[in-house]
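User: structure tokens for this one?
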Amino acid sequence: QVQLVESGVGLVQPGGSLRLSCAASGSVFCIYAMGWYRQAPGKQRDLVARITNGGSTNYADSVKGRFRISRDSAKNTVYLQMNSLKPEDTAVYYCNAEQLGTIGDVINYWGKGTLVTVSS
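Assistant:
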């Protein structure tokens, strides 16, 4: 129903910047929020940033002030602007979309993930 495709160059130096993008296609109706999650080696998948259709945002404490999530509704695309990158940001980043189903359930869609490596 919904396909999410992430894109962005994934190798950057500490202190550098990178922008990830995620384009949603298919049955995009009733998507009320999109976000980015990440999973570092040996760790669980955690929320990085989330944005609702109303524009409300949430960020992990570790990225506040450095990362910014935005959206382009006309292109059904969500972005993650990452600044002042640290080696600790190295992880596989996954795009997520939340959709309200016809019976009131919440459906989560996931991109395949893109590896971001912060290293010299």
